[in-house]
Amino acid sequence: MAAAPEPGEPAKGKTFKLLGILDVENIPCARDSVLYGSLGSVVAGLGHFLLTSRIRRSCDVGVGGFILVTLGCWFHCRYNYAKLRIQERMAREGIKNKILYESTHLDPQRKPANGNGGSG
């Protein structure tokens, strides 16, 4: 029999899907975007309601706030994520080249040893 997971440990194989399509656990930036979007929705809707006391329009503003904040956070986070992936790839290639060219005549850090020690 399989052992039961610890109480603080999430169950493996079970993921949370928002609306059945968006897997917020495995998609980078999805969780933060949805959380910030919901907070933006509450702030926008409540703020509009306190200013105008119009319920239906405040709900519309809340939905608009959710969409705008979610998309804004999503694009910002995905841009930073892509930039980080590019930097990681460049660092991996640099390390690979360092290992590959170390102690060879192609090593850029190696000082060239010329036979004639002065001006020619």
Automatic annotation (TrEMBL):
Q: What is the predominant subcellular site recorded for this chain?
A: mitochondrion
- Under the cellular component aspect of Gene Ontology, which terms does the record hold? mitochondrial inner membrane
Q: Name one GO biological process term.
A: mitochondrial respiratory chain complex IV assembly
Compartmental location: Mitochondrion inner membrane
Task: Please list every transmembrane segment annotated in the UniProt record, as residue ranges.
Answer: none
UniProt KW keywords: Membrane, Mitochondrion, Mitochondrion inner membrane, Transmembrane, Transmembrane helix
Tell me which Pfam families the record gives. Cox20
Describe the family membership recorded for this protein in Swiss-Prot or TrEMBL. Belongs to the COX20 family.
From the Swiss-Prot or TrEMBL record, give the protein name.
Cytochrome c oxidase assembly protein COX20, mitochondrial
